[in-house]
Amino acid sequence: MQTFSWSIRVYYEDTDAGGVVYHSKYMNFFERARTEWLRSRGFDQSALVEAYSVVFAVRRMTIEFIKPARLDDQLTVTVEPGRIGGARLQLRQTLERNSNAPQRQQLAAADVEVACLDARQFAPVRIPAAIKEKL
Amino acid sequence: MQTFSWSIRVYYEDTDAGGVVYHSKYMNFFERARTEWLRSRGFDQSALVEAYSVVFAVRRMTIEFIKPARLDDQLTVTVEPGRIGGARLQLRQTLERNSNAPQRQQLAAADVEVACLDARQFAPVRIPAAIKEKL
Amino acid sequence: MQTFSWSIRVYYEDTDAGGVVYHSKYMNFFERARTEWLRSRGFDQSALVEAYSVVFAVRRMTIEFIKPARLDDQLTVTVEPGRIGGARLQLRQTLERNSNAPQRQQLAAADVEVACLDARQFAPVRIPAAIKEKL
Amino acid sequence: MQTFSWSIRVYYEDTDAGGVVYHSKYMNFFERARTEWLRSRGFDQSALVEAYSVVFAVRRMTIEFIKPARLDDQLTVTVEPGRIGGARLQLRQTLERNSNAPQRQQLAAADVEVACLDARQFAPVRIPAAIKEKL
Questions:
Q1: Per the confidence metrics, is the pTM higher than 0.95?
Q2: C-alpha span between A66 and D58 (Å, rounded)
């Protein structure tokens, strides 16, 4: 499977008084990239709720913070799909700073386990076949 | 009508790379105080949705930013109810830094117009009588 | 002076349990558009701090919330510069939902007064001439 | 070492359009509890920067999301310090919903590795002895 990439700019709202991006914002950036990856496969999340009554929710996440991102940085966030089970999905994600240097600098990396949940009860349900085959 | 007060601590998540509280966070702080003011009158917002199918939403807000709040500051946010109409509510709010000085320092002030909306359609509806009489 | 436009996508992080965009997030969206407007004039905010030791901070803001934005909406935020004084800047901003309809739907509008401040003391200072002439 | 507890209320700002607390907000809640744990040991984070020129930053974090928290929930977040190394600190944290039931409901848990960093360069430095002995 291919790696999906999404570009994100850092604004004041993302930073903290330490002068760097506040650590939980990386989770938001990772989620924006997963949302755009789903959209690139044909699925808006709002449409998933309406059409299938499911939401994809993070069940477990390990984040490694390597170097801080800063105000005005242009970042690239990746999504690399791993194992897709009946009701779960494993993803590997990275966050890099764009630069003129030959190699992009990796700032963070995450292993993410996403569960398919009923949109009302938040109980685990099988990933609808129509979605699974496109992922 | 009495002025209601609520205490708020500033955390890293509230600050930005300028070293001060990010400006939109004042709106969150003002909203926490309004929520606690409603709770002090007997109304949890989640219960308002279930019992009356209404939400209170900001329709118009003017905020004046006087001095910056900073990390670890202990703030006091006030709510002073003004005119209550059929479907709207006027409030005056202030945000002050607690200090050992004889007077608290005012950091921000807001005039807020809140509308009572149907929780599904977001169309204006009359404030339920049971709520209105307690406000 | 010309009106500047910036496109913003709504993610889960921007919404609240009412099913719509949380009201203070409009302030973030307005700020992203001002930041990109400054960048389009040649000024990154992080460079402003380093080169001129100034920050632009909101001094006063009136926001009108007209209709709610929702998950997955594609929004257009505008910046229309008004009067530029010695140390202050007036701006008019709007937030619209993109749609296939002939007219875009206006969801919010704001009048913003921005002050030029010393980056350390947060005291008002004159807008540096090199910046002023490009705005 | 003892477990430290901190109480947190869920507001609209913490929730998303799925009707539950947005997942990255748990990281904010965990950080508030760590901040208050440090404060209970005598250390404000703003004072740490001024007095010792150090910041504590999350280096690695694993979060398990067990059940969703919701609007108006009253939560208890715990901090249980683990191994303290020369420049790193291991912590175990949990997040529970308060209820009238005999047992509190665990909603999330995290293993956190915090690094002591120079406040300017964000390079690892030894935890100052005066801090280490109080933790």
A1: yes
A2: 10
